[in-house]
């Protein structure tokens, strides 16, 4: 519920539901989170990685404590996902709303206390202590970072620009200076201005997006043409007025 009062940046241009991006991102990120949890279970139950690197006691063979550890790991990483999905850029550069942040902190504090102290027979969980809780928080933080990269990758792949770069532009085999670095910088600048609402998006000439220089030249030419029309009209009206006065 607190997401409805979140502090977010409005889109600079009309937006719409992007169902293909939503489904694709959900499938990819969901698969990633499932693999992260499976990896954690394997490392905690089948190896001594955490014991040898962090000095915590072994959970191997203890079903109740393994269940508590998995509960905390899934709770942290799955709820932290909201900070990735709510932001267009890097999640740590866009501050969330106070209520959303408070809701996350309170929920994960309760989950941590349950995992550390709870001994609930019907839920088949037992306390794992603060040492394991700290390890799980660190583990979740490490695997949280790639979520932004996955989000950018899926969005870029669905935009079609990745395939254009591979098949049309052939960047690796181009004969342009610095592999077309100037063109890429100009297009990046155009995309940033478009994102901030300073310029209309997707300006196309013969199937290619124009550069900032071409757009500025077009605007200057249009202003000059309008100025000439205004001057010519004023000259004609002045001549007509003089002729009427002379007659």
Question: Nutshell version of this structure?
Answer:
It is built from nine helices and four strands; from the N terminus they run H-H-H-H-E-E-H-H-H-H-E-E-H.
Give an account of the 3D structure:
This protein is mostly helical and 247 residues long. The chain is 67% helix and 3% strand. The strands form 2 sheets. Strands 1-2 form a two-stranded antiparallel ribbon. A two-stranded antiparallel sheet has the order 3-4. The relative contact order is 0.09.
Q: Could you give the topology of this structure?
A:
Layout: H1 19-46, H2 49-54, H3 63-85, H4 98-117, E1 119-120, E2 125-126, H5 129-144, H6 146-159, H7 161-169, H8 181-195, E3 204-205, E4 208-209, H9 212-246
Antiparallel strand pairs: 1-2, 3-4
Helix pairs in contact: 1-3, 1-6, 3-4, 3-5, 4-5
Key terms:
mainly alpha; 247 residues; elongated; 4 strands; 3% strand; two-stranded antiparallel sheet
Strand order of the largest sheet: 1-2
Uncertain runs with pLDDT below 50, 5 residues or more? 168-173, 200-209
- Record field, number of beta strands: 4
**First-to-last CA distance:** 81 Å
Mean of pLDDT:
77
- Radius of gyration (Å): 29 Å
**Percent strand:** under 5%
What percentage of residues falls in helices of 4 or more residues? 55-70%
Pattern of helices and strands: HHHHEEHHHHEEH
**Apparent shape:** elongated
Number of helices: 9
Structural class: mainly alpha
Major sheet: size, sense and barrel closure?
Answer: 2 strands, antiparallel
